[in-house]
Amino acid sequence: MFRETIFPSFVRITRASQKASRRTSERGKLIQTSAIICAAIGVDTDLTLTYQLFAFLTCLIIVSRLSLRIQLPKVTVTRRLPKYATAGQSFEYSINVANDGNHTERDLKLIDNPLIVSPNFKQYQQEREPGEETRNAYDRWIGFHRFIWLQRRNTGIVIKQGDVPEVSLKGSADTMMEAMPLRRGIVNFTSTTLLSPDPFGLNYAIKNFNQHEQLMVLPKRYPVSTNFELPGGRHFQPGGVNSTWSIGESEEFVSLRDYRDGDSMRKVHWPSTAKREKPVVKEFQDEFFVRQALVLDTDTKDSELLEETVSVAASLLLQTETSDGLMDLIYAANTTQIVTAGRGYAHVNHQLEALATLTRYEGAAERLQETLSAHRTLISGCILVLPGWSESQQQLVRSMSSTGIPVALFIVTQDEKKLADTPARANILPVNEVAKRLAGL
After folding, report:
1. Which domains does the chain have, with CATH numbers?
2. What band does 251 get if pLDDT is binned at 50, 70 and 90?
3. Position 1 confidence tier, pLDDT thresholds 50, 70, 90
4. Residue 397 near residue 383, CB atoms below 8 Å
5. Are 414 and 305 a contacting pair, CB within 8 Å?
């Protein structure tokens, strides 16, 4: 009850503290602290002259604040984001500052503002900050640190303040911004804040530029051993796809036959036609592609387990990117989704984008089993990536194995010792050893 009462105030506190921290420089904070100390010491003006220093510092702060209103910099700001970023990997991008004023601009600073996404009370109750048990009893009781952690994770990115180089009259300069994505998915940018210092460098004038943009953050990936081979992929009609690329058709020559009404003139075999003195055409049959499926189950309440499962799937997709054939990414959302990548289809980046926005789907294993039953005639091998080892997930594995399709099974788990009755060739990936196990396949 207490946490539910104070929870709304957490949002107001974080917004107010953010605004105050931007307006005052480190030098200004030192002056303000000194003024407060002088005020406390100089209460009795008969015993000390400290009150005079207090008066001087107070005047300095007032003049500093008033000077901010005299002349704001006239600039335009343009953000240049990359197309993709990767969760857990820092990256740099630039913001161009163009000087439209009548004098050179110096000592400017930039703060890029993502959309702050505060957690709701249900999320606040259900999730725990990593290492929360090590905090003192008061911090655990109040829970403010948990709120800050959830808000940072929901927002999805941390961006360092950038220092703008000197911008000459009617010139422009690029400011490099360093950012760290904290999660996969879409990160929304709302505005860019320009900080312009007063002559004393105590306070900043704040000017906001609305710039609404989105950045796609792809899942974290791990290196996968080069010894890993796709199940059933290397020996199913080898070279079939390569020949299709060279002729630009997906058909294979089988034999010659007599011409029938409706046959295309492009299929006429002219040497045989001349020899037999009647039309003869070439007969083709459809060429079959080497085709695998990567099946991802997302039915888990453990957010850490889900994130590692998605990362494993993304890592395996990149490892198989250069193989001949097609790869189907199959997962359950409101409906079962199949995203195919390969020559003539989408690029693997489209599959990574799908993984970036993936959320938990309850009952995914049952839905996937139905889809794979209808899809099994098209695939020559299957990679199954599961978050845990529940009864429904075991049934999914048994269903795939009964079809005779080769299956490579990856089980991501919090505790390897709690797994029972796993197949002998299953790849077990504890969440704290995922990178090591994938590299050692």
Report:
1. 1-67 (no CATH), 72-117+156-218 (2.60.40.10), 251-286 (no CATH), 291-439 (3.40.50.410)
2. low
3. low
4. no
5. yes
Q: Find the angle CA(421)-CA(425)-CA(428) to the nearest 5 degrees.
A: 70
- Centroid of chain to Cα 221: 11
Residue with tokens 């492009």: 266
In this structure, what DSSP letter does residue 274 have?
H
Confidence band of 240 (pLDDT split at 50, 70, 90):
very low
State CA 369 to chain mean position distance.
28
Contact present, 326 and 292 (Cβ < 8 Å): yes
For residue 362 the two structure tokens come to 């309850």
The Cβ-side half-sphere exposure at 259, using a 13 Å CA radius, reads 17
Q: Please report the DSSP string for 311-364 in residue order.
A: HHHHHHHHHTTTSSSEEEEEEESSSEEEEEESTTSB-HHHHHHHHHT----TTH
In this structure, are residues 384 and 400 in contact, taking their beta carbons and an 8 Å threshold? yes
Position 224, amino acid? V
298 in Cβ contact with 386 (< 8 Å) = no
Highest mean pLDDT among 101-110, 173-182, 357-366: 173-182
Condensed to tens digits (0 to 9), the pLDDT of residues 267-276 reads 888 888 888 7
